[in-house]
Design goal:
By secondary structure, the protein is of the alpha/beta class. It has two domains: 4-212, P-loop containing nucleotide triphosphate hydrolases (Rossmann fold, 3-Layer(aba) Sandwich), CATH 3.40.50.300; 216-374, P-loop containing nucleotide triphosphate hydrolases (Rossmann fold). Helix content is 38%, strand content 17%. The chain contains 15 helices and 14 strands. It has helices spanning 10-18, 26-36, 51-63, 86-100, 119-124, 135-143, 160-165, 169-176, 194-203, 215-218, 234-244, 257-269, 283-294, 328-335, 356-366; strands spanning 41-44, 79-82, 109-112, 130-133, 154-157, 184-189, 208-211, 222-228, 250-253, 274-277, 300-303, 318-321, 345-351, 372-374. It has a seven-stranded parallel beta sheet with strand order 3-4-2-5-6-1-7, with helices on both faces. A seven-stranded parallel beta sheet has the order 10-11-9-12-13-8-14. Helix 13 links the parallel strand 10 (274-277) and strand 11. Helix 2 (26-36) runs parallel beside helix 3, helix 3 crosses helix 4 (86-100) and helix 14 (328-335) crosses helix 15 (356-366). The longest helix is centred in the N-terminal third of the chain and has 15 residues, at 86-100.
């Protein structure tokens, strides 16, 4: 199957060719024709499965049609995409822009989010066709009459599972009340939770359902290892692992912003190029750190779960759980950031004695049991 066979506008087919897109991913092959037909859609697929392009391409196709609603009348964006974090907002806009730059028609996209000055965003909203937004900042801008949503014909909820888990549900409901009743709704999620089921019923009308193999279904593609390490020895053992295995471009998960800074600092003191990323850093620093890591300029990135959602690398070789997440689903999501697109990956977990019981719960949920490797006799 080719992108051309999906019914995309010729200029988009040319764009995917220039950008070295080959065959469509499974979610793209199923979702793109449905979105072009203006059907509601529920897409269940893990991060890294190609889901962003599965709505970016057909949305641009629809905006390229002669009858497409454009924003010369200043009624607001035709397309609204809600995401949970500023990093994901920027990431989604970057995907839109890489295609928009290849198109003959002028289409404007904009990402808005909190944590930065609001006035430049207010000024940039003029004549926007595609608005990518975090819920809180969108509500703030709407309350200032800086953006109108009465002309929105397509709504996308990306990472909907995470948005509801993070407590955005009331904000999302407030935004839904501002939108036209008649619109196309596209919902994308890594998992199908009870909360998600309820919002599906609220906003989707006879949706096309596309479910691609979940992270849990594909974890057999990931080489997992688990080490039993005393909490006070985790730092030295981590450094031993990185050096002895010559790990490159490794994402390390920790539980808090403090721990992220602490672990990264210890690595740097031991001459390992590492940086931390978390919600307490300013936007400029976070953006620069992510870009360096994605480009391979930064060897180690130490991240909290939420901030890692902006890390989208198709061939990330290694993930390390320095500390376990609270939820088994988060564990599966963490390790699912490696071993993507049939590229081998490695996931390593450092388990303290206090975490043993929780790790057993995670393994049971995962349906896979690991041999716990002891570190007592390892010299580090």
């Amino acid at each position: 199957m080719s992108f051309q066979s999906l019914g995309l506008h010729p200029s988009l087919v040319d764009a995917v060719t220039k950008l070295d897109y080959t065959d469509p991913y499974p979610i793209q092959a199923e979702a793109i024709p449905a979105v072009i037909d203006r059907k509601d859609l529920l897409g269940i697929a893990k991060t890294g499965s190609g889901k962003t392009a599965s709505y970016v391409l057909p949305i641009l196709h629809l905006l390229l049609q002669p009858q497409a609603r454009r924003n010369d009348d200043h009624k607001g964006p035709s397309v609204l995409i809600l995401v949970p974090t500023r990093e994901l907002a920027q990431q989604v806009q970057a995907v839109f822009e890489q295609f928009i730059h290849q198109l003959p028609d002028r289409i404007k996209s904009l990402a808005i989010f909190g944590g930065v000055a609001i006035n430049p965003q207010m000024q940039a909203l003029r004549n926007v066709d595609i608005l990518i937004a975090t819920p809180g900042r969108l509500i703030e801008l709407e309350s200032k009459n800086a953006v109108k949503l009465g002309a929105t014909s397509t709504l996308v909820l990306d990472e909907a599972d995470k948005m509801l888990n993070l407590g955005f549900k009331e904000e999302v409901n407030s935004i839904l009340a501002l939108l036209p009743q008649k619109r196309q709704n596209l919902l994308f999620s890594a998992t199908l939770s009870d909360d998600l089921s309820s919002i599906n019923q609220l906003i989707l009308s006879s949706p096309v359902i596309v479910k691609i193999a979940s992270e849990q279904d594909s974890i057999n593609l990931i080489q997992q290892r688990a080490y039993l390490v005393e909490t006070k020895r985790k730092g030295p053992f981590l450094r031993h692992l990185i050096k002895s295995q010559k790990l490159q471009q490794t994402l390390i998960f920790v539980s808090s912003a403090y721990q992220a800074d602490h672990v990264a600092d210890k690595l740097r003191r031991n001459r390992i190029h590492a940086e931390s990323i978390h919600g307490k850093l300013n936007q400029g620093t976070r953006k620069e750190t992510l870009e360096d890591f994605k480009a391979g300029k930064l060897r180690i990135l130490v991240a909290t779960d939420l901030l890692s959602r902006g890390v989208d690398i198709s061939a990330l070789p290694c993930v390390i759980n320095y500390e376990l997440p609270r939820s088994p689903k988060d564990y599966i999501h963490r390790i699912g950031r490696t071993g993507r697109a049939e590229t081998p990956g490695q996931a390593i977990s450092l388990i303290s004695p206090e975490e043993l019981h929780h790790f057993k719960v995670i393994q049971k949920k995962m349906g896979k049991w690991l041999t716990l490797e002891h570190t007592d006799e390892i010299d580090f």
